[in-house]
Amino acid sequence: MNSVQGLLAASVISIQNSCFIYPACQNCFSRLVLHSRRFNCLKCGCTGEAKDASYRYRLSLKIADTSDLFDITVFGSCLDPFFGVTAENLQRYIQDFNQLSGETNTESTARALVQAVETCFIGKRFIFGV
């Protein structure tokens, strides 16, 4: 699953999703279903306390090389250098910010994050391992 078949130099045209962090199963990396105090993995059946859920990056991009457009999704810790922190720490920072600022409209925080990610990625050229 992690073997690179080839490299693709391409520019990011757009960000395809607005949720870059998701609660991930530590066994199979699938998205966890969070309930008020518990989490559940629908793929492997793993369960636990919601406060112990780990988070992972998932960034879906539309990219273009010199002749084609592609939809590509980048997962995991390879995005840590771009965000400057792990997905788990970024999730914690967002939660702490919302709590400390008394922010009840978490949508404004999400919009600010999307705008920052768009500024950092759109129009930039990267080499993708595919």
Automatic annotation (TrEMBL):
One of its GO terms (cellular component) is nucleus. Gene3D superfamilies: Nucleic acid-binding proteins. It holds the Pfam family Rep_fac-A_C. PANTHER family: DNA DAMAGE-INDUCED APOPTOSIS SUPPRESSOR PROTEIN, DNA DAMAGE-INDUCIBLE APOPTOSIS SUPPRESSOR PROTEIN DDIAS. This is DDIAS protein. One of its GO terms (biological process) is negative regulation of intrinsic apoptotic signaling pathway in response to DNA damage. Residues 9-96 form the Replication factor A C-terminal domain. SUPFAM superfamilies: Nucleic acid-binding proteins (SSF50249). It comes from the Eukaryota.
